[in-house]
Specification:
The protein has one domain: TIM Barrel (Alpha-Beta Barrel). It has nine helices and eight strands. An eight-stranded parallel sheet has the order 1-2-3-4-5-6-7-8. The longest helix has 15 residues. This is Amidohydrolase 2. Belongs to the metallo-dependent hydrolases superfamily. One of its GO terms (molecular function) is hydrolase activity. Keywords: Hydrolase.
Length: about 280
């Protein structure tokens, strides 16, 4: 496999820049993480990466943008701002002036209203994102996908990236097959929207620690069926992947799942799709 663009990793400093998560009980990831940690985990495979906000804080986004100014590994930043704020459209416009700000992620999975993104007070921010050409990263569960589908229809020029494949219910594959059926049907529906793509990321952390890895394979296969290799992106979710695996384990397992594809299709998932979707300038 040639070099990789990791379309999803995180950086944080405990107690700084709006830090709220991870909590101390998550010992594998409760410490500071720098881009050098990602480089060490990935070895020589990494060409560059997109860093994604981890805190619902403007301070976190500004810190990531400062890092990106001098860190050649960081090709793009997916930040955060309050999309429901009265001045949200102006905030979006201001952030869009930052060359490495490629998208925004409102962390929908943690909000009490599953349809929050459809609220009228959020509409000006989404319109501003569409106009500015920013990507909307959707951190969601299956239950949020109908709302994301509605956003995709309302804003057909807004590029939407579903993070972590909407966190499929892999852990309950055997005990609650109806949850898997719901995820399958809902993902099939949203994949019909041409402005929606999906990250192959975060699947290991949706599994039990001792769960056989082959139980994740049908979920990857379904994503390939409904999205196709031109609308899927590799992301490690580093360092969260450390909760159940590591960067190399996830990458190599995913490579095995994608082995039936052509070399150009695999290259799309591991490199060129991220370059295109996040408009990563200067990437060869």
């Amino acid at each position: 496999m040639s070099s990789v663009i990791d379309a999803h990793f995180h950086l944080w400093q405990v107690g700084r820049h709006g830090f709220e998560w991870p909590t101390p009980d998550l010992t594998a990831i409760y410490r500071d993480f720098a881009s050098s940690d990602l480089c060490a985990a990935a070895g020589g495979a990494l060409h560059g990466a997109v860093v994604v906000q981890s805190q619902p804080s403007d301070a976190d986004t500004q810190w990531l943008l400062r890092l990106a100014e001098t860190d050649p590994l960081i090709m793009g930043v997916v930040g955060w701002t309050d999309l429901s704020a009265p001045d949200a459209a102006a905030r979006v416009d201001g952030l869009a002036l930052q060359p490495k700000l490629k998208g925004l992620r409102p962390m929908l999975q943690g909000l009490p209203d599953d349809n929050w993104i459809l609220r009228p007070d959020v509409a000006p921010a989404l319109s501003a994102m569409q106009t500015a050409g920013l990507v909307f990263d959707a951190l969601v569960f299956t239950r949020h996908l109908p709302a994301i589908e509605a956003v995709a229809q309302r804003y057909p020029d807004l590029r939407i990236v579903i993070d972590h494949a909407a966190k499929p219910p892999i852990a309950t594959t055997q005990t609650q097959p109806e949850a898997t059926r719901e995820w399958t049907q809902t993902m099939t529906a949203i994949a019909r929207q041409p402005n929606v793509v999906c990250k192959l990321s975060g699947l290991f952390t949706e599994m039990h620690i001792d769960q056989p890895l082959h139980e994740a394979a049908p979920y990857v296969a379904h994503l390939l069926t409904v999205f196709g290799p031109q609308r899927l992106l590799f992301g490690s979710d580093w360092p969260v992947v450390r909760l159940n695996g590591d960067w190399q384990k996830w990458r190599h397992w995913l490579e095995d799942q994608l082995n039936p594809l052509t070399s150009s299709e695999r290259q799309a998932i591991f490199f060129t799709n991220a370059k295109r979707i996040y408009d990563l300038q200067g990437v060869q």
